[in-house]
Amino acid sequence: MLDIGDTRYKDSMRLWIAMSVADRQDNMICAAVVLEDRLVVKTIMHHFSWEE
């Protein structure tokens, strides 16, 4: 997911990484993450959709 997912930054340290999974009803999963000394995964969501 980190290598091939779509990313959207909220600011310089917080972002979302999302990826579609083919052949699944809940085909969009997303991780809300924080960039620190390490990548910190805060939340994993399914049935996700981007806000416009």
- Helix content estimate: under 10%
Biggest sheet strand line-up: 1-2-3-4
Give the H and E element order.
Answer: EEEE
Overall mean pLDDT stands at 83
Provide the gyration radius in Å.
11 Å
Number of helices: 0
Question: Strand portion, in percent?
Answer: over 45%
Q: Which segments are poorly predicted (pLDDT under 50) over 5 or more consecutive residues?
A: none
Q: Number of folding domains?
A: 1
First-to-last CA distance: 21 Å
How many β-strand stretches?
4
Can you tell me the overall shape?
A: elongated
By secondary-structure content and strand pairing, the structural class works out as mainly beta
Query: Mind summarizing the main beta sheet?
Result: 4 strands, antiparallel
Structural description of this entry:
This protein has 52 residues and is an all-beta fold. It has one domain (6-46). Helix content is 0%, strand content 52%. It has no helices and four strands. It has strands at 6-9, 14-20, 28-35, 39-46. A four-stranded antiparallel β-sheet has the order 1-2-3-4, with no helix packed on it. The protein is elongated, with a radius of gyration of 11 Å. The mean pLDDT is 83.
Question: Could you name the key traits of this structure?
Answer:
elongated; mainly beta; 52 residues; 4-stranded antiparallel sheet; DUF4258 domain-containing protein
